[in-house]
Automatic annotation (TrEMBL):
GO terms for molecular function: DNA binding. The keyword rRNA-binding does not apply. GO terms for biological process: cell division; regulation of sporulation. InterPro entries: Homing_endonucl (IPR027434), Sporu_reg_WhiA_N_dom (IPR018478), Sporulation_regulator_WhiA (IPR003802), Sporulation_regulator_WhiA_C (IPR023054), WhiA_LAGLIDADG_dom (IPR039518). It comes from Streptococcus parasanguinis. Involved in cell division and chromosome segregation. Residues 218-300 form the Sporulation regulator WhiA C-terminal domain. It comes from the Bacteria. Pfam families: HTH_WhiA, LAGLIDADG_WhiA, WhiA_N. HAMAP family: HTH_type_WhiA. The gene is whiA. This is Probable cell division protein WhiA. Signal peptide: none annotated. Residues 18-99 form the Sporulation transcription regulator WhiA N-terminal domain. Residues 122-214 form the WhiA LAGLIDADG-like domain.
Length: 305
């Protein structure tokens, strides 16, 4: 089960009955038809539980008797599509939810009564996510929450609702409409709190912490490996130079302090500068060891002149 499905199932388990939630679902997934008896309403979804939820909302608020129908998609995925079909009280429902103008292209944004009310805003966002929302698996790739809309002003309206809860929502045009999206993990966590998907929020946050911990460990390991590589490279250069001195003028030609450092470096090529400093008869600072090693390297370089 994908993370998106888990979020939607948690939202459905809340058993919230909010008109703003129903309005969002109908606006984003509904279509009108005409029959002998007047207008008909069809609301489609690929989730059987969401279809059942729509059915319950219509019955709860309007005592409307709708049918749940289904058919198989003909594309490669062949998902089952559920349609909640209603052929009564459609005009009443559209008027009550302030959706009448939306279906005739007159008003494609979000009603002001929703934008101005916090409870209605939360419910509308919940319905919008149930209808066409998705969250990328937080364990894979970048974080992303998206809600798809047909119209630009509706997508911007959803962004406004999110921004009302201090979320950094943006919109972008796609081939089949406009997407309102969040990309920061913190914003997605806050969105889940806004719509009251608390279990999903905790799961997302836990995964985020684990990812950050793994990334920190990887960075630390990479830095450590880089330090080791630098140490080995510097060590081999110095060892080669000491060997050159031994083969040409002899180690005894060096001052005693340089001889001691050269001896330790030759016998312990894996030692760090600090370990060399600690191994001296009279321990000195790391900068002191580096100074002596530079002297040894210079003496070796001068032998080539």
């Amino acid at each position: 089960m994908s993370f998106t499905v888990r979020v939607k199932e948690e939202l459905l388990s809340l058993k919230r009955f909010e008109k703003s939630e129903l309005a969002a679902i109908i606006k984003m997934s509904g279509s009108l038809g005409i029959s002998m008896g007047g207008l008909t309403l069809s609301v489609t979804t690929e989730n059987a539980k969401i279809a059942r939820h729509i059915y319950e909302l219509l019955h709860h608020f309007y005592e409307a008797k709708s049918d749940i129908r289904h058919h198989q998609k003909t594309n490669l995925k062949k998902n089952r599509v559920y349609t909640v079909f209603l052929d009564e009280k459609v005009e009443e429902i559209l008027a009550d939810l302030h959706l009448a103008d939306a279906f005739f292209g007159i008003e494609t944004g979000i009603d002001a009564s929703v934008l101005e009310d916090e409870v209605a805003s939360r419910a509308y966002l919940r319905g919008a996510f149930l209808s066409s929302g998705s969250i990328k698996d937080p364990e894979k790739g970048k974080y992303q929450l998206e809600i798809h809309s047909v119209y630009t002003d509706h997508a911007e309206g959803i962004a406004l609702l999110m921004q009302g809860f201090l979320l950094d929502a943006k919109t972008i045009e796609r081939k089949k409409g406009v997407v309102t999206y969040l990309q920061r993990a913190e914003d997605i966590i806050d969105f889940l709190i806004v719509v009251e998907a608390m279990q999903a929020m905790q799961e997302f946050e836990s995964i985020k912490v684990m990812r950050e911990t793994r990334n920190d460990l990887n960075r630390a390991n990479n830095a450590e490996m880089a330090n080791i590589q630098r140490t080995v490279t510097a060590s081999m250069k110095t060892i080669n130079n000491i060997s050159k001195i031994v083969d040409t003028v002899g180690l005894g030609s060096l001052p005693s302090d340089l001889q001691e450092v050269a001896y330790i470096r030759m016998n312990h090529p894996d030692y760090s500068i600090q370990q060399i400093a600690d191994s001296l008869q009279q321990p000195i600072s790391k900068s002191g060891v580096n100074h002596r090693l530079r002297k040894i390297n210079k003496i070796a370089d001068d032998l080539d002149k």
